[in-house]
Amino acid sequence: MICFCSVRRVLFFFFCLSGFCLNWHFFLADNSRTRALSVRDDEEGHLICRSGDVLQERYEIVSTLGEGTFGRVMQCIDHRRGGAHVALKIIKNVEKYKEAARLEINVLEKINEKDPDNKFLCVQMYDWFDYHGHMCISFELLALSTFDFLKENNYLPYSIGQVRHMAYQICLAVKFLHDNKLTHTDLKPENILFVNSDFTMSFNVEKKREERTVKSTAVRVVDFGSATFDHEHHSTIVSTRHYRAPEVILELGWSHPCDVWSIGCILFEYYLGFTLFQTHDNREHLAMMERILGPVPSRMIRKTRKQKYFYRGRLDWDESSSAGKYVRENCKPLRRYLLSEAEEHHQLFDLIESMLEYEPSKRLVLKKCLPILKSKERVKRR
């Protein structure tokens, strides 16, 4: 077995988060001389910067980790943290992104206040500031997202032990959010990052390919750009499509349970290596749910304003259409996805099933699953 290190540090979540924009002054890192750089943005509003530039006489730019709609993420040396490497999120100089940044910072400050020791596994914000119209946030430097690792490993599923360990950590983090009157609203594998994604590699003789096994499944929950406090306005539509709860699709209102649904979808994806609800259409999404989980409850059908999806109290879906054939061929009842009849596999599906309960009021409450997952976590992870 050969040991490898993930050299690339990918922080997808930083540019999925709501925006923060900043303009800067730069100085040479060795402090022997300084050079004032003009504060310039490119045509899209990104701050123009390069390796070796230093901002705030503190953050030395090392490399670009990624770029997204709202800005860029840079790997930096923080000279006030003993030369530690951090991730600095730099957002475009656009007012709507700046406002989104203020909202996100509010959430991150609340998390820091309630969990100063980072016991509850939400990504830690170190610092934030506004610089010439741009805002930037300094975060702990994390590794690949659980999605990116899966993708780079040819979508080879995680082992049952790894899934269980990650499930415990995700549930712990999200329960902490719920206890503090927050709903994340955008949980997905891209927003669960490994602390360290170093891996070992072995050759699968049967499949004739190299396969990676992550050494440590310690993770952090990231991307609080869409997180919503209980007392705040709740947008009608939240969550990335594949992880969106039925009450959101049917516009019945949402709260903490929509996060639990998303976690159920995430755990399925870790276990199988593919998305449970692979669709971009509401009607087809509901049809997939019915194929996998059974009929949508009549109470939800009666209550929804989205009656166009139903006819005479049932989902209006043509199973003989090409879309109907696609759903029939690509979806099956949940338990038929089991890879093993071993007890621990059935226990995982018990958990997933309780998270994918249609009715939000009947859906699993996270505090109930933590003791079960914690006891299982003691079992040797393979």
From TrEMBL:
GO biological process, one term: regulation of RNA splicing
Family: Belongs to the protein kinase superfamily. CMGC Ser/Thr protein kinase family. Lammer subfamily.
Phosphoprotein found in the keyword field: yes
GO molecular function: ATP binding; protein serine/threonine kinase activity; protein serine/threonine/tyrosine kinase activity; protein tyrosine kinase activity
Native species: Dicentrarchus labrax (European seabass)
PANTHER family xrefs: DUAL SPECIFICITY PROTEIN KINASE CLK2, SERINE/THREONINE-PROTEIN KINASE DOA-RELATED
Positions of the Protein kinase domain: 59-373
Annotated gene: clk2a
Domain of life: Eukaryota
EC number: 2.7.12.1
GO cellular component assignments: nucleus
Catalysed conversion reaction: L-seryl-[protein] + ATP = O-phospho-L-seryl-[protein] + ADP + H(+); L-threonyl-[protein] + ATP = O-phospho-L-threonyl-[protein] + ADP + H(+); L-tyrosyl-[protein] + ATP = O-phospho-L-tyrosyl-[protein] + ADP + H(+)
Subcellular locations according to the entry: Nucleus
Gene3D superfamilies named in the record: Phosphorylase Kinase, domain 1, Transferase(Phosphotransferase) domain 1
Primary subcellular site in the record, as a coarse category: nucleus
Stored InterPro entries: CLK_kinases, Kinase-like_dom_sf, Prot_kinase_dom, Protein_kinase_ATP_BS, Ser/Thr_kinase_AS
Protein name: dual-specificity kinase
Enzyme class: transferase
PROSITE patterns named in the record: PROTEIN_KINASE_ATP, PROTEIN_KINASE_DOM, PROTEIN_KINASE_ST
Residues noted as binding ATP in the record, renumbered to the chain: 89
Keywords: ATP-binding, Kinase, Nucleotide-binding, Nucleus, Phosphoprotein, Serine/threonine-protein kinase, Transferase, Tyrosine-protein kinase
UniProt xrefs under Pfam families: Pkinase
